[in-house]
Amino acid sequence: MNTNTTIAAIATAPGTGAVSMIRVSGFRAGEIVASIFKGAPQAAWKARHQHFGRIIDSDGATVDDVLMTWFPGPASFTGEETVEIAGHGGVVVTKRILELVLNAGAVPAEPGEFSQRSFFNGKMDLTQAEAIMDLISASTELAAKAAQEQLSGRLGSELESIRQRVIGLLAHVEAYIDFPDEDIDPDSSAALQDRLREIREAVDRLLATADQGKILREGLRTVICGSPNAGKSSLLNLLLGFERAIVTDQAGTTRDTIEEVINLNGIPIRLIDTAGIRENAGEVERQGIERSREQLARAELILWVIDGSASVNETASIELPKDSRIVKLLNKSDLPTHPDWKEEEGLSISCLDPSTSEALREYLYRTLVENGDISTSSLTAINTRHQHCLKQAAQSFARAADNLESNESPEFVAMDLREGLSAIGDVIGKTDVEEILGEIFSSFCIGK
Question: Which residue segment(s) compose the domain that 89 sits in?
């Protein structure tokens, strides 16, 4: 990233709208915008105040009437001098304003470069930068709330707290190693283990949120399966609230998978309707059945739809993946229930009855909450990158604990702690040896 340049980009979504915005950031942002803005002179601009004026081209012709806002650094999103130009939302006029900004000396911003500059200028950590995209792409209120908590710095604060505890522990161990003549208390192995145990427990608590984070960001992969004509496509339509899949009395209508996302009380559910599984299917239907089995192997939740009005013999036997989480749904409750299913556990539904939808959604939501898939009390949730780094940290801390337990040389303990500290720092974008040295000298008064 070249911080000596001033970057510019259209900050609003492409297309026609009431308002569009061009963002300019860098040490020349004010100078560049002032050269094409006719309104209040640059010397009169007030920080974080909108100024009405016109954008003009090289011939002095008006391109658009705009509202311009100036953010002097470091009190801006990027930490640099930033100017935002809000104009009318036409595609042509927006591109024209951007062209004028670029002709005046700015360069096109790379994807994510404004957030990247914000990170490098210390305005946010990496978890907050990632939360920006999570917030933009959130498909439910719960997902948006989780992203907002991360954007506010909650996850970063927890990680920073862990990191500071590791720095303190590492500083103590390394001070004992490097300055043996300073009468530094080495602590007992048990005391160090207690401090390390607290750190490991804090890391484990964050790792336990990985599944929740995946669900909130990507949706719970939920596969609807069953025999032909059991009502799988009808169930999809019922949960969506509109006719997405074709429904007929003819078996084998669904030949390919259909995927849609629903909002289940704030939990995004990625529903996948599959072809009915049966023997003696034709060539095309067999291909659909093979895709159904592939989807079942990747499912995080399976909605097994059973025709409750038919006998077990009339319902094709379906081999579900071992250890799958399955919700049994006895469909066609509007018809007499066959004796074979009288004692079967599961929820009785009728996909022909719209009132079934609310009860079914509540049943599924309660199942997910009770199984611990989603915790509504805490929305702190790490993503895949965080999980990878924290697993590395957990392994390093486990080795440090083993080395303490077996009375290995403190150099080995320090090495493991350093690796764990580096992994924690990778999550938030902080790895600084000077902080360890600072902790050593401040805490132990070395060189007094």
Answer: 7-120
CA angle 63, 46, 17 (to 5 degrees): 40
Domain check: are 257 and 360 in the same one? Answer: yes
Q: What is the DSSP string of 115-129?
A: HHHHHHTTSS-HHHH
**What are the tens digits of pLDDT across the range 8-66?**
999 988 888 899 999 999 999 999 999 999 999 999 999 999 999 999 999 999 999 99
pLDDT at position 448: 41
Distance (Å) of CA 160 to CA 18, 51, 118, 276, 381: 42, 40, 18, 50, 15
Cβ contact 118:41 at 8 Å? no
Domain count of the fold of the chain:
3
Question: In the listed set 326, 349, 370, which residue is the last one of a domain according to the structure?
Answer: 370
CA distance 271 to 130: 26
Residue 272's CB is within 10 A of a number of other CB atoms, namely: 22
d(CA 327, CA 230): 15
Helical spans, DSSP H, in 104-208: 113-120, 126-137, 141-151, 154-178, 189-207
